[in-house]
Amino acid sequence: MDALIQGADALFVLLGAIMVLAMHAGFAFLELGTVRRKNQVNALVKILVDFSISAVAYFVVGYTVAYGTSFFVGAEQLAQRNGVELVRFFFLLTFAAAIPAIISGGIAERARFGPQLLATAVIVGLVYPFFEGIVWNRHFGIQEGIEHLSGHAFHDFAGSVVVHAMGGWIALPAVLLLGPRSNRYRKDGAMSAHPPSNIPFLALGAWILVVGWFGFNVMSAQSLEGMSGLVAVNSLMAMVGGTLAALAAGRNDPGFVHNGPLAGLVAVCAGSDLMHPLGALVVGAVAGGLFVWMFTLTQNRWKIDDVLGVWPLHGLCGAWGGIAAGIFGQKALGGVGGVSLLAQGIGTVMGVAWAALAGTLVYGLLKRTLGLRLSQEEEFDGADLSIHRITASPEREVSW
Predict the structure, then answer these.
(1) How many CB atoms lie within 10 A of CB 390?
(2) pLDDT tens digits, residue range 268-311?
(3) Pick from 154, 156, 90, 99: which is nearest to 126 by CA?
(4) Structural contact between residues 91 and 20, judged by C-beta atoms closer than 8 angstroms
(5) CB-count burial class (<10 Å; 0-12, 13-18, 19+) for 193
């Protein structure tokens, strides 16, 4: 029976890893559909190569930093217990690799390729697993301290703060250090519109992410026995809440409509195992409205050229999700209980502060040493030609 349970758990986690791996195609197509045509190839290449760099960095360093498990042993030892630890690594790698995929959308169209890959290695190898280990492996006694202070530890079931807020708040200093795309904001105060290049691809990316997200959330139980239908239905309700709120707040704009469900899903991750489905609906709706409002504010009023809006989508909605778990997880609001608003606030502030500090240090150092930005001529030609020497749609086809 033990062997059967271990095998079932390994298969369960493996299926979750595959579903979240598919989400990276969603990241790629969401970015491809949002950027201008001359940067579409770069969007596809970045996500794939970032994932590959992430896999090496997390295998060699990151997973050990977070969980203390090293893979530098014989294959026979690795295969013990049906390889449960290996598939767990695979599953958690897909979470870690989401960080550079998130950042990629914010710095799109003007970031140099090499320095971004180096940043990916540092972030996935050290920055992210440091905080991951604190929250999900109780490093340094910090969770115990929060529990002593508030009565409960910081709760983040599927990574509203650990993954999404982390990615969004690391991306913010990177976006600020890069500066806006050329001619995005003119000296006379006018703003040049850069509309999405392909709405169908943007929508495809959003749908792939939505479907994969049920692996992201439900399989975060990491065992068949721990799987909860409540997590699945809460994810569903937050998704539709985010969609409807973004539809209303965004006045039918398709870019907002397809990012709305993502905002809801980001926010529900932390407390998806605690909330009542109606609470999840409210959490998702607040996140959808928050994304539309803050994306418009950052782009138009603050002139922060965050191309895909990753700071409001992941950074702010992720932080809201961390706080919301402490509100809607309470029994008084139909939740399961066992969570503290004070603990959620402390953990969320810790995650935001660490991400913002690390992002500033990593990208600030890269800017001073290697440089972060494409030259003006390279940016004008587009990252596709400047970096990859090919465009997504050649204007001429060889006919003979």
Answers:
(1) 9
(2) 999 999 999 999 999 999 999 999 999 999 999 999 999 999 99
(3) 99
(4) yes
(5) exposed
